[in-house]
Design brief:
171 residues; alpha+beta; Alpha-Beta Plaits; 2 domains; four-stranded antiparallel sheet; disordered C terminus
């Protein structure tokens, strides 16, 4: 009889400890996990915002010069700025001035990298503030990563750009 009472007493004590300590501790743990996840998402959002603002602040704002050589240099800087801070390797940048027409300079950017980096580079080039107009963008899967080839032009100051591609690409 005393063994049964002692066993029952231990069972009741265990139930009281479970309800009094374990369940509240689990609730606190779950709330802490949720708060941590929320802070992590907020930190990630802020990190993205800071990166975007830093990129915007460091971007080279290119106003196309009238001088043909200066236009080619400005286009080269714009192409280089598109790769800044991204994991693009085997980068080749070339630009040359155009003497006639509305095009001030033509350039080419070739590079290889991971898909997110290559797509960010292409997005930077396509952005209206980049100072360039994309003529051609080609992406190819290679063993070393995604290879990007982009042909771009800069427009002379005072010359409106052409109507662009027939599909109305843009944002």
């Amino acid at each position: 009889m005393t063994r049964r009472l002692v066993g029952l007493g231990l069972l009741v004590a265990m139930a009281v400890l479970y309800v009094g300590i374990t369940l509240p501790a689990r609730r606190v743990r779950d709330e802490s996990r949720a708060a941590f996840a929320q802070r992590r998402e907020e930190r990630e959002r802020l990190r993205v915002d800071v990166a975007r603002l830093e990129r915007r602040a460091s971007e080279v704002r290119v106003g196309t010069p009238d001088d043909a050589a200066a236009a080619a240099r400005a286009l080269r800087l714009s192409l280089l700025a598109a790769t800044h801070g991204l994991g693009i390797s085997d980068v080749q940048i070339a630009s040359h001035p155009e003497r006639l027409g509305t095009t001030a300079a033509r350039g080419r950017l070739v590079g290889t990298g991971r898909q997110p980096d290559v797509l960010r580079t292409a997005g930077r080039l396509a952005h209206p503030d980049s100072g360039v107009l994309l003529e051609r963008l080609e992406l190819a899967l290679r063993p070393e990563g995604i290879r990007m080839e982009a042909d771009a032009v800069s427009v002379r100051a005072g010359s409106p750009p052409d109507d662009g591609p027939p599909y109305g690409g843009g944002s």
